[in-house]
Amino acid sequence: MPAHRLVLDLALTVRHDGKGGVADDLDGADGLARWVAAHSDELAEAGAPLDPFAADADALAAVRALRQAVRALFARAVRPGPPSPADAQRLLPDAEALDRLAAAAARVPVAPRLTWPESAAPEITYAPTAPAPPADLLVAALARTATVFLASDDRTRLRACHAPRCVRYFLKEHPRQEWCKPSCGNRARVARHHDRHRTENAQGTSSRTA
User: How far is CA 14 from the centre of its chain?
Assistant: First the structure.
């Protein structure tokens, strides 16, 4: 999985609840445990082998704090476009978000390790320099992944979806893409159609009464 997929999936644990509000997939330790289990392979590749993983309140708080920083930096990345409406009114200041990201990555110091299989090119991997608690491994791996993504050219493809009821961020895959998925595009087109007819009806009413 590309680095951006893991960090996007973390950001997308904040989602529309289908009722006009916002839901949080990390609403408790059980939610975090499920998310980690669903991403166990990707987290292992990122330096956090966490199968099994026992989530607790401290781990949950640390991951949610990191997610808040990531979403604030996503909002910065999509400027001058507007951020996701899920947290547009409560974004961390940029400097605080950057400091929080750096502090999370520093929870587990890592060192480069060269691996060179007989039949493949050499690769650099990063391994903790000392044993670390699982929660620290998780938060640090996610923070490093977010750092790599935000420093990459992929960052310039990041967009906030502003279809009705959507609060997702997504990577723009082609020049004409406006929405995170086709269903959002359909909702946006329907909303535009209704807005246009309301405007036309209002103008017609105004001209008749003038």
Answer: 8
